[in-house]
Specification:
The protein has 195 residues and is mainly alpha-helical. Strands 1-2 form a two-stranded antiparallel sheet. Helices cover 55% and strands 4% of the residues. Strand 1 and strand 2 form a beta hairpin. It folds into two domains: 92 residues, 434 Repressor (Amino-terminal Domain) (Orthogonal Bundle), CATH 1.10.260; 85 residues, no CATH class. The longest helix has 20 residues.
């Protein structure tokens, strides 16, 4: 992401975007990141974090403004959006999963309930789920996963009346997740452990 943005920034001069030309020997003739940020309406810090691939989200409007100021072609603009999507999706995948307190209260108020996160990780559960499905609190966090439970737990076939249907549903859920999160590096590890 940063390499692409820097290469496109380097080909512009201030006068290309309506800024005064820099003729002094001590001034760079290229457009600076701070100037680009100002022209796009984003802060220099925001642009710098974008260039470095940090942050949780990037708005389509900011990307469009950067593409406009950098004078990107349609293909380059599309590529920038793709880079942002894959870069920041990876960033989000590395964030720890958490269940909000309101969701926890909701789960506690139900008969048997649990909350699943990425890769079918079990993030929260209530007492009845612990009794009927599995004592998730007794498992290490890395093993609190419904796919692992379905395919690796000896009691899972007894747990579900139609285990084959549940197994097929689990595979379909993971496939759908993989389609949307192809860059999740932990998904292949989960698949290997369930084989």
């Amino acid at each position: 992401m940063g390499e692409f943005l820097r290469s496109r920034l380097a080909r512009l001069r201030p006068e290309d975007v309506g800024l005064p030309s820099k003729n002094h020997a001590c001034q760079a003739s290229e457009l600076r990141c701070e100037e680009l940020a100002q022209l796009t309406g984003v802060s220099a810090t925001y642009y710098s974090r974008l260039e470095q691939g940090y942050g949780r989200i990037v708005s389509a409007e900011a990307l469009d403004a950067i593409a406009r100021v950098l004078r990107l072609t349609d293909a380059e603009h599309t590529y920038l959006r793709h880079l942002a999507e894959t870069t920041f999706k990876h960033c989000r995948m590395s964030q720890p999963q958490e269940v909000r307190p309101t969701v926890r209260r909701f789960i506690d108020s139900m008969d048997r309930a649990s909350a699943l996160g990425r890769r079918m990780d079990v993030l929260a559960w209530n007492q009845l789920a612990s009794v009927l499905i599995k004592d998730f609190a007794a498992l290490p966090p890395t093993e609190r996963n419904m796919a692992r439970l379905i395919f690796l737990d000896a009691d899972a076939q007894e747990l579900y009346l139609d285990w084959e249907a549940k197994a097929a549903e689990t595979v379909n859920t993971l496939r759908m997740y993989a389609d949307h999160h192809a860059h999740d590096r932990q998904l292949p590890r989960l698949s290997e452990s369930c084989l």
